[in-house]
Amino acid sequence: MTMAAHSPDLDEGEARAGFLARHELPVSLVAGGILLALILAAVVLAPALAPADPNAVDLKVIRRPPSAEHLFGTDAIGRDLFSRVLYGGQVSLLVAGAGMIGSLTFGAVMGMLRAFGPWFLRPVVDRMIDIQLAFPYVLLAIAITSAVKPSVPVLILLMVLAGWAGVARVVRAIALQERAKDYVKAAEILGASGLRISLFHVFPGVLPGLMVLAAMQTAAMIVFEATLSFLGMGIQPPTASWGGIMLEGKDYITSSWWLTTFPGLAILMTSLSLVLIGDGMEARSERLRAKETEA
Amino acid sequence: MKSYILRQVIQAAIVVAAITVAVFVVLRLSAGDPARIRAPVFARPDVIEQYRRDFGIDRPIIEQLGSFVSRAVQGDLGMSFRFQAPVSDLILVALPKTLALAGVALVLSMVLAVFLGAMAASRPRSAWAAISTALATLGQSAPVFWTGALLVMLFAVNLGWLPAGGYNGFSSLVLPAIAVALSIVPTQLRVLRSSMRGVLGEEYIRTAHAFGLAPARITFVYALKNALLPLLTVIGVDVGYLLGGVIVAEVIFAFPGIGELALVAMKARDYPLIQGITIVTASLFVLVNLVVDLTYAAIDPRIRMEQP
């Protein structure tokens, strides 16, 4: 079907895009993918790209504005901000990735449990989702870190707590829709267990939605990590993370704009790329579905 | 309708009770001995023992929970370690400010979402549609504290139009409210845009066009009425997220609301205060959700007819 002409519902922009339109690739997906690839490359190659040790103090160059020597300027104790943002990205992205995987897994399990689990668990899962969503996540983080010292495992736990309910709500909705379909009823009549139906029959149907959620969730987790570190509840100094660097720059906001602007831009760009990817994947599956019903 | 209301109220009550018990037990188990936190570092054992009796933590946890709840329903949430004042008084001072901030931010975001969402849906190729897409993606990506920091730099430091922080009446609300509104507007905008698109495709809208009504009137009066329902739900669900944003904004703008108070309490390990704040705000938000649910059911009969 590669020779197929453009379907009539494609608008001019898509027709001009040629390659992208033929492969049903929305521009946002490609743009987000390229942006994310660039950011990942920069962060992974930090040891090669960074001009200085991210923790090397140089008291001769305190809070210098961006220059050729210090691309993003220097911070309050003369550390090179560009190097710190690059290395900070490693920490922020790893933690966000872990938080995404954790919240996605837990959320998906709870969502499927709500749709296919034993009857007495269903209202319990519903209430748990309600409680979690009613509970402001920052307040939850404050309550927990007032009891246990902030650390990376605690941070990841907080991310899972903050993110799972949103995932579970979406998975629940998709799984309940699927459950009403004939193929599930057929499997039930054939005597398949709830576990078997949910794992082998319904889960593949949930997967595309989960992929979109994964992108959106990673974006949310990057912002979440930054927020918690910014409030002093996340990654602890001197380890650089994007939120932590902003916290260090907070007190100089009126005099040294670069200290908060650049790490903020890094957060914005990364989560923007992921939101674009998520939007793009959603648009793509919608288009493919539209094509299918047309055919 | 009556049984629907009853069911919703009971569910909300269960949620509040569960949150209260969870917060109480988790803090008791993990925060360590409040007497040790409260007492001077090198206090004598008998002094610490006295503090334990004062807090009542020499008794079993069930008994403590019982007395906490029975006092809490009378408005007594204990004494703050840090401020040496009743927790309820501290919350009563801070909460109205937080609610004002949240309210202004919510109104601002709704106005933005309704206007841009409706324009984007009715004129998909206009500049409004482009602006709303940009706002939906950028707003979702930018952390509240960063937008807040940029706003401070631009409007408070460079232009000097508005205060950079603190609390001096309405002008102090503007910048934090904008920062929070920008963070919650994306979801609202997406929802309103898509529901608006659906409604605009309906036959009664075509009829209205055929009758020659002004397009703006059709969009903002006839279509909006039906497109607003999903927006209402999203706002109800996102209240927790809204408060999260407000707390962060309070910190960056040094705004003396509940979030700032919670952060101070956290740093001082002032756990009666944390406990009080968490329980009060969580209950408040369950209440808001309840009101949204009931409003929704009052507007749309299909919901209250639905069997659980």
Fold and architecture overview:
- The complex is a heterodimer of chains A (295) and B (308).
- Mean pLDDT of chain A is 81; it is low at 1-8.
- Chain A has helices spanning 12-17, 19-22, 27-44, 46-49, 81-116, 121-134, 137-147, 152-179, 182-189, 194-230, 242-250, 258-294.
- Chain A has a single domain (49-294), classed as MetI-like fold (Orthogonal Bundle).
- By secondary structure, chain A is an all-alpha fold.
- Chain B is an all-alpha fold and 308 residues long.
- Helices cover 79% and strands 0% of the residues of chain B.
- Chain B is flat, with a radius of gyration of 24 Å.
Write the layout of secondary structure elements.
The complex is a heterodimer of chains A (295) and B (308).
Chain A: H1 12-17, H2 19-22, H3 27-44, H4 46-49, H5 81-116, H6 121-134, H7 137-147, H8 152-179, H9 182-189, H10 194-230, H11 242-250, H12 258-294
Helix pairs in contact in A: 3-12, 5-6, 5-8, 5-10, 5-11, 5-12, 6-8, 7-8, 8-10, 9-10, 10-11, 10-12, 11-12
Chain B: H1 2-30, H2 34-38, H3 45-55, H4 61-72, H5 87-122, H6 127-141, H7 144-158, H8 171-200, H9 203-210, H10 215-237, H11 239-252, H12 258-267, H13 271-299, H14 301-305
Helix pairs in contact in B: 1-13, 5-6, 5-8, 5-10, 5-11, 5-13, 6-8, 7-8, 7-11, 8-10, 8-11, 10-13, 11-12, 12-13
Named at the architecture level, the CATH assignment of chain A is Orthogonal Bundle
Count of extended strands of chain B: 0
CATH top level class name of chain A: Mainly Alpha
**Number of continuous helical runs of chain B:** 14
Q: How many angstroms separate the termini of chain B?
A: 13 Å
- Please tell me what the overall shape of chain A is: flat
> Largest sheet of chain A, if any?
none
Most residues in contact, chain pair and counts: A-B, 44 and 53 residues
Number of strands of chain A: 0
